[in-house]
Amino acid sequence: MALLIRHALVEGAESDILIQGERITQVVPADSFRFDGRGELQVIEARGMAAIPSLVNAHTHSAMTLLRGIAEDMDLMPWLNEAIWPREARLTAEDVYWGTRLAAIEMIRAGTTLAADMYFFPEAQAQAARDSGMRLVIAFPLIDGLDEARGLAQQKACDEFFGRLPDCGPVSIFALAGHSVYATSASSWRYIARFAKEHGLFIHLHLAETETEDRECRARTGMSPTAYLDSLGVLGPNTFAAHCLWLDVRDWDLLAQRNVTVVHNPVSNMKLASGPAFDYEAARRRGVRVLLGTDGAASNNSLNLFSDMKMAGLLQKHHYKDPKRWPVREILAAASRNGHVFFGSGGGRIEADASADLVLIDLARAEMTPCHDLASNLVYANASAAIDTTICAGRVLMLHGVIEGEKEVREEAARRAQGLK
Hints:
The chain has about 425 residues and is an alpha/beta fold. The protein has 2 domains: about 1-55 and about 350-405, Urease, subunit C, domain 1; about 55-345, Alpha-Beta Barrel (TIM Barrel), CATH 3.20.20. It is about 40% helix and about 20% strand. It contains 15 helices and 16 strands. Strand 7, helix 3 and strand 8 form a beta-alpha-beta unit. Helix 11 crosses helix 12 (about 330-335) and helix 12 packs across helix 14. The mean pLDDT is about 95.
């Protein structure tokens, strides 16, 4: 079935958008599309709405929706060791499935159609991706606590997993994840680097999130976390690193030389008081690609990337005392187009032959009125409240605010979360 979106504003021009299969096939002036009558045609009337590329949440732990609000007002390491990891040890594959489904609903409502996940039970994540219709970058995790024997067992499990890859639907992909320099051993990092290169996989990791991480890595290895991972062969153009707060000039130069992509997580970083403000200008000057992520709902409480866009911009301007720092269109690119390009979705643009990953924003909503500058409203107004429809790879995931099966998912996820208190 083809999908026709009528009278949507595309870069200010009222347009008709034809979607066939997973791709946009035509973007033409409004009312100029003529249906040839062959096959079925679903029509969405979008008069007064702007069509924009969907968002990309480049770092999250989806099933941590079950741990939303479980621990507050704590430093990162006590938060992990005392509140999070003990509860995660009790999670089942079914828990992860329902937590991921709940995360998908939250992200779809906030205009996100692609998320890079890092969590346990990748088979359950794959099933959740298929059932939700979202794009998910599903990473097999290696988190051995610096125990090389445990790491070898995880490496064997990874080999077996990739030998029997579950069906995650037509749009999601698999990757590898190492947690961090303090939770993944050197042998596991070498394995990740080698396996990813052999199989053409992305590598997802946390990097330089706290001062403690930086200090302890230097004491243990004689190198910064960035230099240490590079010495193990981990850094490269398929690597995307979350946080990247405690970096010196040499670290930034190394990330640029290796063409690493970094993911800024402003809300989670501020909530856990992880470090100084992310240095966007250091990345921009070196041509380092910057994406945005929410992190998990346990450290952000929300998976609404529009909120993180606003916080990202405000933090830069406030901390560096420069109102011109990180312009709105560059923030929007970090939350959308840059991620679509990096992960190869084919989206990030509303034009013929692009993947049909898009969102309809109701400009009549109070939050979007007036609309002198759409990009400004998207970044700094409460734009997520104005999302009417979300489409991923040509599939309508939310239509006029309705997501099929949402009630069942919310109820089952809430029931499972009770068992983790």
